[in-house]
Specification:
binds nicotinamide-adenine-dinucleotide, 4-stranded mixed β-sheet, Rna Polymerase Sigma Factor, Chain: A, binds magnesium ion, alpha/beta, 48% helix
Length: 404
């Protein structure tokens, strides 16, 4: 029997890599549904190539447009729209595996729907665990979903853990070493950081990714979100994880055992490796990724994270320690700040300032249900928007005076 796969966010960086791996194994996988925000043309092309049963777009008008294009091309793919469509294709009885690759908070509900339907869930959308980790992991247990990490670091850690992993202590593990490249600005003089543009921030030295996660890598907020993600995925507390900067992105993370053994997972920085690993788990399949050439890599460097350069990292560790709704507020504030930076409304160095101001004004509570999380997300976004307003004025005044 072929496994039927839904790819949420199929037109993005992870979505495209997932379809690349799936297409290498037509005897094992069949695409059930593909979804996108608003990229009608990309989704149309993907539908013609992969012939899913369903395609989903966010807006009704664009869904109608895609449906017409597909009908004219003689395609049998049906088109759905909106959040309800996403939940349908994530939880449908016919689906075995769901790749959760929507970016940001928008990924939470469809991913949770897949978990509640007991699917094999391949989790790229780290934001959903950051926002609602406790509720999410509880749903995984209750509905016996199989949760497999796609984030390269978490996939690496998963590969370095024993198959019967039931917690650090039980498995004789001392700590988890979460590696990160340090992004494009690891060595940029601090005084120049405020002038960095969206294109400079998105030019990651090792990975090619969507724009939001690329900016997160430049601020190292990505490592902060991953720090929180790792706490939930592996049931560990913040002090059991050490962040290690490793500029080559060859070691994808490590696990240190009590006997002093350190296991690392290595490979070329190509997301098709963790995607293929999770798709086929516990088996192994070809991913299309080239062999790691150790002679070409030549050396592996490691250094401590610089919290002065990357204040977002410090804020994330504090949010992980605080728990409650703080990680959801951190994530929401970051999404607003990153979007404003990408729209060239605030400076690169304003991003952590927005987050800090929002968290300072957040009264922490333990989220009892998803509504509490959604309220926290909404409130943090509103606070972040109001923090951004004067920054936007300063930014425009600054760019005008530069032009003079
Ligand atoms: P991307 O921006 O390239 O793609 C995002 C996808 O989500 C697109 O298909 C887009 O159409 C869809 N989408 C965006 N907003 C939506 C909305 N409101 N409703 C429905 N669909 C929406 O992002 P990406 O780089 O592929 O990242 C996806 C997720 O995977 C993120 O959570 C990211 O943190 C995580 N991740 C990515 C990488 C990587 O290498 N790109 C690595 C690790 C983790
Ligand atoms: Mg990662």
């Amino acid at each position: 029997m072929k496994r039927r796969v839904t790819v949420l966010g199929s037109t993005g960086s992870i979505g495209v890599s997932t379809l690349d791996v799936l297409a290498r194994h037509p005897e094992r996988y069949q695409v059930y549904a593909l979804t996108a925000n608003n990229s009608v043309t990309d989704l149309y092309q993907q539908c013609l190539s992969h012939q899913p049963r369903y395609a989903v777009l966010r807006q009704q008008e664009e869904a109608a447009q895609l449906a017409l294009m597909l009908r004219q091309a003689g395609s049998a793919t049906e088109v759905l729209a909106g959040a309800a469509g996403l939940v349908d294709v994530a939880a449908a009885a016919e689906v075995d595996t769901v790749m959760a690759a929507i970016v940001g908070a928008a990924g939470l509900e469809p991913t949770l729907a897949a978990v509640r339907a007991g699917k094999q869930v391949l989790l790229a959308n780290k934001e959903s665990l950051v926002m609602a980790g406790g509720l999410f992991m509880q749903a995984v247990r209750e509905h016996q979903a199989t949760l497999l990490p796609i984030d390269s670091e978490h996939n690496a850690i998963f590969q370095c853990l024993p198959a019967d992993y039931r917690g650090l202590q039980h498995s004789g593990i001392r700590k988890i070493l979460l590696t990160g490249s340090g992004g494009p600005f690891r060595q940029t003089p601090l005084a120049q950081l405020s002038g960095m543009t969206p294109d400079q921030a998105c030019a990651h030295p090792n990975w090619s990714m969507g724009r939001k996660i690329s900016v997160d890598s430049a601020t190292m907020m990505n490592k902060g979100l991953e720090f929180i993600e790792a706490c939930w995925l592996f049931g560990v507390s913040p002090e059991q994880i050490e962040i290690v900067v490793h500029p080559q992105s060859v070691v994808h993370s490590m696990v240190e055992y009590v006997d002093g053994s350190v296991l690392a997972q290595m490979g070329n920085p190509d997301m098709r490796t963790p995607i293929a690993h999770a798709l086929a788990w516990p088996e192994r399949i070809e991913s299309g990724v080239a062999s790691l050439d150790f002679m070409a890599v030549a050396r592996l460097d490691f250094e401590a994270p610089d919290y002065q350069r990357f204040p977002a990292l410090q804020l994330s560790v504090a949010a992980a320690n605080a728990g409650g709704i703080m990680p959801a507020s951190l994530n929401a504030a970051n999404e607003v700040a990153v979007e404003a930076f990408l729209q060239q409304q605030i400076r690169f160095t304003d991003i952590p300032v927005v987050i800090e101001k929002v968290l300072d004004k957040t009264d922490n509570i333990e989220p009892a249900d998803l509504n509490t999380v959604k309220d926290a997300d909404r409130e943090a976004r509103a606070r972040a928007e109001s923090v951004v307003v004067p920054m936007r004025r300063d930014f425009h005044a600054g760019s005008k005076s530069n032009q003079r």
